[in-house]
Amino acid sequence: GEEQVEIELEPLEQSASLPLPDDIEIDEAGNIESKGLRRLEIHNVAIQSWIVTISVGVFLVVLGMYFLFVQFGSWTVDSIVSVSLIGNGLVMFFISRKESYIFDQRSGKLQLRRTTWRGVNVTDYWLLHIKDVSIEEYKDPQGGTDFELYLYLRSGQRLKLFSGHIIGVGCAKKLKARDDINAFLAEFNRKHTTKSRASHSDFRNF
């Protein structure tokens, strides 16, 4: 009769995945996707914004309370000084805010997060609705020159970045933020245009 030979096959070990280029990744569904600048986050400088306003506010309130309970001169004068200090301190505390601008290609949105004493306020804008990113020059009250960074939306709305700063942000940081946003939006618009053309081509073929 025929000779039967049994061969035992050992399971293959899972081989290491091949290295991918730095700008390519594979998601959980196995789809190949370009990394690029999928997410860009811009935050206001804490030491120049909310930390300063909160610190100054607390200092003025404490100083006002000190004048209120430790009488140096007449009670009327000390009361006026203390109320003025406490009032200015509360104003500084209430205007303090932490801002974050999160540009996300996956959701196609810009998320503006503002954290104040009232809580966290989140506003979303479509990336496709951003028309322009611009730095504008203006004269400050002291006669000097300063620069502001704005996002212009197609609706005509204008968003000012670093708006929560009590101490001005240097022009170099604003220029870098503008260049980063422009690069991010250019890549996003290129990908969106490519996908739109592909979808239109598939629909036309169908």
From TrEMBL:
This is Uncharacterized protein. Keywords: Membrane, Transmembrane, Transmembrane helix. The keyword Transmembrane helix applies. The chain crosses the membrane at residues 45-69, 75-96.
